[in-house]
Write a structure and sequence with these properties.
Layout lengths: L2 H7 L5 H8 L10 E7 L6 H17 L3 E5 L2 E5 L4 H9 L4 E6 L2 H13 L4 E6 L10 E10 L15
Parallel strand pairs: 1-4
Antiparallel strand pairs: 1-6, 2-3, 5-6
Length: 160
């Protein structure tokens, strides 16, 4: 605990005053985030890289749901957990993009996340615009979940 946190805890400093000065909550509030793990070894074009990351981010949320027909219209019904609710309501949709250097590393991170019970979606590109027609694992998204849930899964990976 740093001196500022200690001062707040001991009621020597008003957290509301700190919020006005710092422009943020103090002590910081844990906010959910999503981690996108990209394969750097593929040397994807920037647009392809962004598209693949977007596919992963969307899949991690939408694949939780099911399609239901109501009065002749289809609706995507997504169960909203506390963490998903906090992530959606924040409107920030926090994401961190990290990288691995091989398919094997991507598979290992993905499997670790699944084994930990986290939402994780692996993206396999169809190879229509890159990768010479070969289906290729490009990235995965993990979460959204609370920051402490990424320990031992993605916290060691370098930022992209």
């Amino acid at each position: 605990m740093n001196k500022l946190e200690q001062a707040v805890q001991e009621n020597e400093v008003d957290p509301q005053v700190l919020k006005k000065v710092l422009g943020e909550d103090f002590p910081p509030v844990a906010r959910p985030k999503q981690v996108i793990v990209m394969r750097k070894d593929l040397n994807m074009r920037k647009g392809k890289l962004v598209a693949q990351g977007a596919h992963a981010a969307m899949a991690a949320v939408t694949n939780r749901g099911t399609v239901a027909e109501i009065d002749g219209d289809n609706y995507l019904m997504i169960p909203v957990t506390a963490v998903l609710d906090a992530w959606l309501i924040s409107g920030i949709f926090a994401k961190v993009v990290v990288y691995v250097n091989s398919e094997a590393e991507l598979d290992a991170v993905y499997e670790k996340a699944k084994a930990a019970g986290l939402t994780a979606e692996l993206i396999i590109d169809n190879g229509l615009t890159e990768f010479n027609g070969v289906k290729t694992k490009t990235c995965c998204a993990i979460g959204p979940t609370w920051p402490d849930q990424f320990k031992g899964i993605t916290d060691h990976l370098p930022l992209y």
